[in-house]
Design brief:
Length: 296
Amino acid sequence: MTPLLETITYYQQRVNNNLSQYIKVENPTSSKLNEAMAYGALLGGKRIRPFLVYAVGEMLGSSKLTLDPLACAIESVHAYSLIHDDLPAMDDDALRRGQKTCHIQFDEAAAILAGDALQTLAFEIISQPIDGLSANTQLKMVNILAKASGEAGMCGGQSLDLEAENKQVGLSSLEKIHAAKTGALIEAAVTLGALSNEQLPPQHLLLLQQFSSSIGLAFQVQDDILDIISDTETLGKPQGSDIAHQKSTYPALLGLEQAIAKATSLCEEALHALTQLPYNTQLLESFALYIIKRDR
């Protein structure tokens, strides 16, 4: 295992352990809902967004204890989005992370409520007092996560994605969809990690946001590529689902070779932003390269 994958695995375990403590409460109001929340949030996953919170925050000198709730909050939002994304009214998928999707394992009502509860849990976590952060910084973080999750971010992107099914959209429209649907939460993860250092110069925050914007789009381009060249067992979700839903994708729009070139170009943009930062960016550099070389 490479040093990067070892670090990703470490952060996976850390965020899982912490998130489990928030979800698996004693005497829950509804045991079924609690089980569905745990199933949707804790059963596998790459934990890319928490990784970015930790990697950026620690690079800037923040403690893991300060970063833990931020990582849990953003993963809770991501987990809710996947549960809802798999519903029959959305992508209607039966497989996620190699397991039955939440609405298949339980039922549609339980899946909807689990997603709702995980979304609100994220804001419960991030709005509680966090050691090392001022109230003003936490309020800013709440605002950033809310914008990235809602109409201006992930939800708006999902709506555009659904509207674009069975249609041919142009490159600018496709980038708008994915900048909102996928990129917004990835950018939020980097920004939350960055803001954990309350003395961070604004120009350094801007460079980190440029980095996150590029890798957020690169992540989606690679997802589109893997939907064609990978298989269901490796992906842990149905291979070819983009084609089945007649979605516009980068390979469909540009061709496979040009889509690969696009992902590489975005990675280079991300790396260029990092070269301008006066920190040890080696972990983030390795991650940017991993994004376009991963097989799932």
